[in-house]
Amino acid sequence: MEETISLKEIYETLKKRLGLIISITLLAVAASAIISYFMLTPRYETTTQVLVSEAATASSILDSASFGSDSEYIDTYNVILQSPYILDQVEEELGLENTPEINVQREGDSQVVNISVEDTNPARATDIANATAGIFEQEMPNLLNVDNIYVLASADLGEQPTPVSPNPPLNMAIAFVVGLMTAVGLAFLLEFLDQSLRNEQDVEDTLGLPILGSVSVIDEETPEVKTSKSEVANTELSRSNRKGRESA
């Protein structure tokens, strides 16, 4: 038998399970806040910019015959920046325990390359970015016999570094939406699994038969009141009869 759900039934279900919905939503937001603020380790990102000038792009190895466009030699520089040849020297210079991970990205269609480093320590991230740019600038004449690398902007630690992750407000907003959707879904699931018959309409929908009658709820105080009144009436009638016999 096909069932339809009216807007009134949806409203009644949400109203009935409102406490559950609010509780689950607040619990999800609170859990997200605790995890974001107290359990996840903040990570900081710093960036330095390197300019690859055109002065030497047509000389030595980087000539027009070797590279067909600007993007080709810049892509080559990007690969060199992330190679062990550069990163091993950065690790040795800073005394790092592990090889640093850097992100190299070209700034649009320009000849500027951004070197980004993400780390749990903002000072260490700044040192890695600046050391990578400095070693790259120093080693390029030895690698490709060119001297066209210039550091435009060094990474700056700043007075109050702001972590890039986690983002507690964003995480809490996502938790709110997910928690609310989960709570509403759970409310409708519980309502669907509840097979109890609560009124005449539920009986009619379940049996598929019309309701001919129903048993009303009897107030417990009503019979006592009626009984008391009848007892008073009987007492008064007995007194009247007794007086009549005495008079006769």
TrEMBL record:
Query: What GO cellular-component annotations does this UniProt entry give?
Result: plasma membrane
Compartment list? Cell membrane
- Polysaccharide chain length determinant N-terminal domain residues are 3-93
- Keyword line: Cell membrane, Membrane, Transmembrane, Transmembrane helix
In terms of superkingdom, the source organism counts as Bacteria
* Cell membrane found in the keyword field: yes
Q: What is its main location?
A: membrane
List the membrane topology term(s): Multi-pass membrane protein
Q: Where is this region: Disordered?
A: 222-248
One MF term in the entry's GO annotations: protein tyrosine kinase activity
Q: Which regions span the lipid bilayer?
A: 20-40, 170-190
For this chain, the family text in UniProt reads:
Belongs to the CpsC/CapA family.
The protein, known as: Capsular polysaccharide biosynthesis protein
Which species is the source of this protein?
Answer: Texcoconibacillus texcoconensis
